[in-house]
Recover the amino acids of this structure.
């Protein structure tokens, strides 16, 4: 490696040889590579960089591993943190299948129809999403959950020809920010409303809701449906796909558009991404739906084939009048969720959901019996719940971390001493008991 | 080829006043031929008020989506359900069964004055549209 370092332009990743380079320099009429930079003032040319000396691949790997070990990851810690990114089990079959050469691509291929296998997966993804969410049509994936919700808001504005987006204050605050980022520059209005007092005017394009809400609790979607229908607005639901495996689906409860973060279905927690967005709606709105749709058809010989369909809505054909500037998908992640859903099956997903429900209720019950702790929100929750703590959650979380436990999200900014805890099928009874034991150290 | 009982716009729409004094609007044979197989037509709701040459709706063919502009301004009083259900009607019979909307024109005469006659439109197609 040393001889490579001594010459900045020589590396085994660059295929041309010193001789090749000499010939090229001669052809353009300069004597050295440095001469090509002669137009840059000398004092600005190759300024010294104060960085450590280069490392060998072996050294670099050791360095990065050591840095990686500084993270408090879920391999060596117990996790009770959720709030949008969840620690769920990924079936072992997912990784070997998504890394097969035939599948390993980030995008829908440019010559999509050549890749029939890829399109078939996308078609199956759409079909499973429709079945899970109780909807009629789904696209082949969006960037992630938050932008899917934002795209749903824009779509509702197109469908209703209105510009006022109403969003409940129980929707994930980060998602609400993304909705504003998408909507405000387009001249649309975003209004946050409290669940205790929802009043929709006739100008409302939609009501954006979350299932279960950011605090883990189920809300009365059927009532929201009556409210939106009365005003000619669309009901948009940002759903947890795992919850949909057990509760009545958002579609059955009247949702006009369902979006979701697909990470829970076989995508690892990795610094917030890459994730995959889910987007489903009613057939009647299909032309206003963003993203790509794969259809199933027959070719001239009557054989089954898969094709990208309704492409005239998309920006590569319709440019500025397209339904969205999204012209791709998170195909690899959608593939992972498709394999996960197929591996779990309908019953398996229900089982995962039931485990989350039972374990989180065990944890909630246990914690509510610790002196000084209570559950301030009444209602049905799924895998997350809010705990009123006797002391600041930041302090409690610090202690939990010392014991190898990643605590819940500190939501003290809204109400002092509140924590949002998440329990999934990954948490054992022993882990929950250890959590409760540490919490009781702060008991009043 | 283009019927002489109506007027034509540069955007390839036609406008014809019917017995009740309403202006019937459609797209021309040339327009449907250029678009190819029409698969979807998006038309305004009855009651919509649209100014002359503003966007009336959209027509989607297997090749493209194009805007339709109204050749006369006014209020939409009737929408042809037959073309919404069977968009191919516009390909088959653009001048009769494939009409799109009927408009209660605000200034029918003035608006129609700005449009081309069939003869002018024929010339327009030969000289400018290609």
């Amino acid at each position: 490696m040393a001889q490579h370092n001594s010459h900045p332009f020589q590396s085994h990743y660059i295929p041309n040889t010193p001789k090749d380079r000499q010939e090229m320099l001669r052809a353009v009429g300069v004597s050295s590579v440095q001469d090509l930079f002669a137009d840059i003032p000398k004092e600005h040319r190759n300024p010294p960089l104060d960085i450590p000396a280069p490392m060998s691949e072996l050294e670099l790997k050791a360095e990065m591993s050591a840095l990686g070990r500084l993270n408090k990851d879920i391999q060596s810690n117990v996790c009770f943190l959720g709030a949008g990114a969840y620690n769920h089990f990924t079936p072992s079959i997912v990784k070997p299948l998504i890394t097969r050469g035939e599948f390993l691509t980030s995008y829908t291929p440019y010559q999509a129809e050549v890749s029939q296998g890829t399109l078939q997966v996308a078609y199956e993804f759409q079909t499973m999403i429709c079945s899970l969410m109780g909807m009629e049509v789904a696209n082949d994936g969006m960037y992630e959950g938050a932008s899917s919700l934002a795209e749903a808001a824009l779509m509702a504005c197109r469908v209703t020809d209105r510009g006022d987006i109403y969003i409940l204050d129980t929707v994930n605050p980060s998602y609400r920010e993304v909705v504003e980022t998408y909507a405000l520059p387009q001249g649309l209005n975003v209004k946050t409303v409290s669940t205790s007092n929802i009043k929709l005017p006739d100008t409302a394009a939609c009501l954006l809701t979350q299932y279960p809400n950011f605090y883990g609790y189920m809300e009365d979607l059927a009532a929201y449906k009556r409210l939106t229908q009365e005003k000619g607005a669309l009901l948009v639901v940002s759903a947890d796909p795992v919850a949909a495996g057990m509760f009545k689906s958002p579609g059955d409860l009247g949702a006009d558009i369902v979006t979701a973060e697909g990470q829970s279905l076989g995508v690892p927690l990795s610094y917030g991404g890459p994730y995959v967005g889910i987007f489903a709606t009613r057939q009647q709105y299909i032309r206003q739906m963003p993203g790509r749709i794969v259809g199933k058809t027959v070719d001239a010989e009557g054989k089954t084939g898969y094709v990208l369909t309704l492409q005239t809505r998309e920006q590569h054909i319709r440019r500025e009048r397209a339904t969205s500037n999204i012209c791709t998908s998170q195909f690899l992640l959608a593939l992972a969720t498709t394999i996960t859903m197929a591996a779990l099956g309908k019953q398996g997903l229900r089982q995962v959901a039931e485990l989350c429900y039972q374990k989180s209720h065990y944890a909630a019950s246990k914690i509510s019996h610790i002196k000084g702790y209570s559950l301030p929100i009444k209602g049905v929750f799924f895998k997350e719940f809010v705990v009123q703590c006797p002391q600041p959650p930041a302090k409690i979380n610090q202690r939990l971390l010392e014991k190898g436990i990643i605590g819940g999200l500190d939501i003290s900014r809204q109400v002092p001493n509140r924590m949002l805890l998440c329990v999934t099928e990954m948490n054992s009874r022993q882990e929950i008991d250890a959590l409760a034991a540490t919490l009781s150290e702060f008991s009043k | 080829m283009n019927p002489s009982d109506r007027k034509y716009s540069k955007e390839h729409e036609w406008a014809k006043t019917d017995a009740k004094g309403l202006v019937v609007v459609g797209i021309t044979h040339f327009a449907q031929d250029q678009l190819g197989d029409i698969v979807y037509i998006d038309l305004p709701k009855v009651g919509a008020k649209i100014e002359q040459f503003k966007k009336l709706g959209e027509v989607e063919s297997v090749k493209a989506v194009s805007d339709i502009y109204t050749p006369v301004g006014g209020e939409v009083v009737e929408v042809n359900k037959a073309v919404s259900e069977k968009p191919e009607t516009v390909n088959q019979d653009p001048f009769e069964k494939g009409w799109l909307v009927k408009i209660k024109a605000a200034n029918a005469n003035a608006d129609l004055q700005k449009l081309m006659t069939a003869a002018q439109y024929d010339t327009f197609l030969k000289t400018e549209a290609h």
User: Anything to note?
Assistant: Chain A touches chain B at residues 287, 312-313, 317-318, 321 (CB under 8 Å).
